[in-house]
Amino acid sequence: MSRMFRCVMLIWVLANALQVMHAQAPLAQADLRVIQDNSDVRQMLPAFLNKLAQDATEKRVARLNRIRTENDFRNWQEANRRKFLDLIGGLPGERTSLHARVTGEIPREG
Fold it and tell me: Is the C-alpha dihedral spanning 75, 77, 79, 85 positive or negative?
């Protein structure tokens, strides 16, 4: 592209940007409010968290109510064990010595 063409394009872009900026109305304080109604905002987060807890409890109770046999229980137990181990990052692959050292004593009765 020639330098002249680039300059003309830059002027055209800047002119259009100025028109857009000038056409936009200034924002009022009411335009910046996220929540428009008069609801109690302080109760929104606790209500949301309570709903999440209630849904999780209903899901857990439904799973427990599906347990009818010992095999169902064993499957439920194993699924929970796998999930727990996944959440904590699993167990160590091999046992290692602790290299415990006594660094002091606290004398007391007993």
Answer: negative
